[in-house]
Fold:
Amino acid sequence: MNRRRPTLLAALALTAAAALTLSACGSDDDSSGDNDKIAGADTGGPTPSASPTASEPSKAGRPQLQLPADLSYTFEWPKTGDKEKDAVLADSEQSIKAVDLAIVNQDALDKAYLYYYEGEAAAGTQEFIQNYVDKKAVITGSYRFYAPEVAVDEDGTASFTYCEDQGKAYVKYLETGKVRETKVTEKSYVIYHTSLRKNSDGAWEIQKVASQSGSSKCQP
Structure:
């Protein structure tokens, strides 16, 4: 599976399918009730996704990322002391945020994430983001990333495996402002395997990415 956040994407698809079924039946009843809301969620109408991000690259050539306040991250990725491995960790952190920014911006061709993704990984990520754009949905909540394993080869390539906790991450629909809160299950814990290559700017680009929900390695 060449995309990030498979559990959230599944929730997005299921919710959209349920909404379509209700519409087809002509029901005016909101069957989702309070389960579609979390504390502090605005349910009064459309919600702005975020302030525009600065698209100009930073002094190091990397894009500057400005994410909305309702998204938070915890990266339990301690520095290794190895310059190249630590660079992989740092750029991987930015690449994750860049994809989320594209979802917030509702732009499947957002320049920030395309800086960090190439080839197969870029194509799969574009499709992933487009699912949110098509359904006028964004993401909200808290994300935790942990259990990093990174290896760097002399030929300028690297492999990186890590876990993600999606237990406090949700899908939010822009037209209603509603947040789809999902229960925490074993599938809320996802493992990712990425292949990277250093580009001409010295940044680590993701060439391939695969994910698996419910990985035993990532369970609490």
